[in-house]
């Protein structure tokens, strides 16, 4: 399947792009349809599923079907988050929108929590094309808003152009952190560099893999060799590293209603105290399927991504994970399923609305052909 890196490399020079480009080069269209994808334009366009127009699948009996909002609509809506348990995805028709060569990215440091939720709520409903926040500790964060621009502005202010994707540039999250001290400012970033800004540092996971990787000498001499491919890291980690990561590392994305941001940040701070945190608002329409907005109608949500080593002394992967999952269910939120999930089947069914999924599985003879999604994604089932 096609990757995000291939899509931006092909489409952007032609003046086109996808409305949502999940940021790591190697993410595939298939994985993002069957799982989910969220990015800094999601406050306007929703999740990756919301930019899909038509899907082609091979079903359990070998037949090939296409589905969309108009044709086989039940199947179309049930496919997202189904992780390949309804059929094999063979083609996707996805929306494209005009691109421009640069993003004007505004960095706005905030130094207190209430200011953070106020500003994020304001910009999530505002006119900017991109919205993303990195939280650096309990109270300090940098809210970023971006807009597509042509060549004129960067040409007029060449000192404001920052090609952040070059091998010798500082890791993006480290660069963002400097604005806490420097104060509010803006830069022009080439579009592809912006889209894939978290690739080189795998968000900030690279600092646990190559702790000296942001040293300027290392970057200039060896920066072109990193990052290692996530798929390679996954494939080559031995049992010991795997267990170390399982016990001492936390990788989760929780999607909660935006009005629950403050309480959610408190929970993450109390339970894992991992920083930076990734905050990415997205609009969730009330479409049929697994994800039903807590309010029953279109609602603004936010993805809270925590990747790293917990600093809390009583961290216990399973117990802590379960407490956070329960909190997320209690506020009408969702957990992304690429990471470990410890929910019981009942909790999983409370978090995700299975009514359409169950109906479609019966209709298309999936019960014997494919596992149920819980049995594929839950931690106890994976072991
Ligand atoms: N910004 C974001 O939103 C980010 C999202 N992610 C997550 O990472 C995952 C995407 O990673 P990626 O490596 O591309 O995907 P994966 O290969 O991890 O696939 C994810 C799931 O989709 C299934 N799948 C993939 N392609 C097909 C297909 N053609 N037909 C049927 N099922 C398919 C896989 O099934 P099987 O297990 O059988 O192979 C698997 O269950 C997503 O789940 C996403 O949520 C990760 C980073 C960033
Ligand atoms: C932005 C969203 C929604 C998600 C980003 C998630 C990523 C940060 C993780 C997805 C898979 C993770 C893996 C690792 C780091 C964090 C992710 C890229 C490892 C590379 C960490 C080191 C281990 O040895 C292998 C891991 C594979 C998966």
Automatic annotation (TrEMBL):
Any one GO cellular component localisation term in the record: membrane
Q: Does the keyword Nucleotide-binding apply?
A: no
Q: How does it sit in the membrane?
A: Single-pass membrane protein
Q: Where this protein primarily resides, as one coarse class?
A: membrane
- GO annotation, biological process: steroid metabolic process
User: Which Enzyme Commission number(s) are on file for it?
Assistant: 1.3.1.72
Localization, UniProt: Membrane; Peroxisome
Q: Which GO terms describe its molecular function?
A: Delta24(24-1) sterol reductase activity; Delta24-sterol reductase activity; FAD binding
Q: Which residues form the FAD-binding PCMH-type domain?
A: 1-99
Q: Which InterPro entries match?
A: Diminuto-like, FAD-bd_PCMH, FAD-bd_PCMH-like_sf, FAD-bd_PCMH_sub2, FAD-linked_Oxase-like_C, Oxid_FAD_bind_N
Name the keywords, alphabetized.
Answer: FAD, Flavoprotein, Membrane, Oxidoreductase, Peroxisome, Transmembrane, Transmembrane helix
* Catalytic activity as recorded in UniProt: 5alpha-cholest-8-en-3beta-ol + NADP(+) = zymosterol + NADPH + H(+); lanosterol + NADPH + H(+) = 24,25-dihydrolanosterol + NADP(+)
Which SUPFAM superfamilies does the entry link to? FAD-binding/transporter-associated domain-like, FAD-linked oxidases, C-terminal domain
Gene3D superfamilies per the UniProt record, alphabetical: 3.30.465.10
Going by the record, the broad EC class of this enzyme is: oxidoreductase
The keyword NADP appears for this protein: no
Q: What is this protein called?
A: Delta(24)-sterol reductase
Record gene name: DHCR24_1
């Amino acid at each position: 399947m096609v990757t995000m890196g291939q899509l931006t490399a092909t489409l952007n020079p032609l003046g086109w792009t996808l409305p949502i480009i999940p940021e790591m080069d190697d993410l595939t269209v298939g994985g993002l349809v069957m799982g989910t994808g969220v990015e800094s334009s999601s406050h306007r366009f929703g999740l990756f599923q919301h930019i899909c127009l038509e899907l082609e699948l091979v079903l359990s009996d070998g037949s090939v079907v296409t589905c969309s909002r108009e044709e086989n609509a039940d199947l179309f809506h049930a496919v997202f988050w189904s992780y390949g348990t309804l059929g094999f995805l063979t083609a996707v028709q996805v929306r494209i929108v005009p691109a421009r060569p640069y993003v004007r990215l505004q960095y706005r440091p905030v130094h207190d929590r209430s200011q953070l939720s106020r500003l994020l709520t304001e910009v999530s409903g505002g006119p900017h094309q991109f919205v993303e926040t990195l939280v650096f500790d309990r109270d300090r964060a940098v809210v970023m808003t971006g807009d597509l621009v042509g060549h004129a502005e960067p040409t007029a202010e060449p000192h404001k152009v920052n090609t952040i994707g070059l091998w010798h540039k500082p890791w993006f999250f480290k660069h963002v952190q400097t604005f806490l001290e420097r104060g509010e400012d803006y830069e022009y970033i080439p579009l592809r560099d912006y889209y894939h800004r978290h690739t080189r540092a795998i968000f900030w996971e690279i600092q646990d893999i190559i702790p000296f990787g942001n040293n300027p000498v290392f970057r200039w001499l060896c920066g072109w060799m990193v990052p290692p491919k996530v798929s390679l890291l996954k494939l080559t980690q031995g049992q010991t590293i795997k267990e170390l990561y399982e016990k001492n590392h936390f990788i989760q994305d929780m999607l909660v209603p935006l009005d629950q941001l403050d309480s959610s940040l408190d929970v993450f701070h109390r339970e894992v105290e991992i920083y930076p945190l990734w905050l990415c608002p997205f609009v969730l329409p009330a479409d049929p399927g697994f994800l039903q907005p807590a309010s029953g109608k279109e609602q603004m949500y936010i993805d809270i991504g925590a990747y790293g080593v917990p600093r809390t002394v009583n961290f216990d992967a399973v117990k802590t994970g379960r407490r956070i999952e329960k909190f997320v269910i209690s506020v009408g939120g969702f957990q992304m399923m690429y990471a470990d999930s410890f929910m019981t089947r009942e909790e999983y069914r409370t978090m995700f609305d299975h009514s359409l999924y169950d109906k479609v599985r019966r209709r298309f003879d999936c019960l014997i052909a494919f596992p149920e999604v819980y049995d594929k994604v839950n931690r106890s089932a994976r072991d």
